[in-house]
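User: Okay, second chain of the day. Same drill as before: sequence in, structure tokens out.
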Amino acid sequence: MHQDLSPQERRVVAAVAEGKTNKQTSGNVNYVANAMHKADVDNRTLLALWWRQHEQAANG
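Assistant: Same drill. Structure tokens below.
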């Protein structure tokens, strides 16, 4: 599923999963919104959980 995200979206979502704010992720709200749409989630918390879940699956 990560492959559906652009490299910039992956970078921003990883930052969100680390608890970074929009300001700390260079204000890339559009990347966050696009990633939320692709992950089919409604908010940043669910996006972070989605990212962590997929990271664990990918890394065994």
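The longest helix spans residues 44-59.

User: Thanks, on to the next one.
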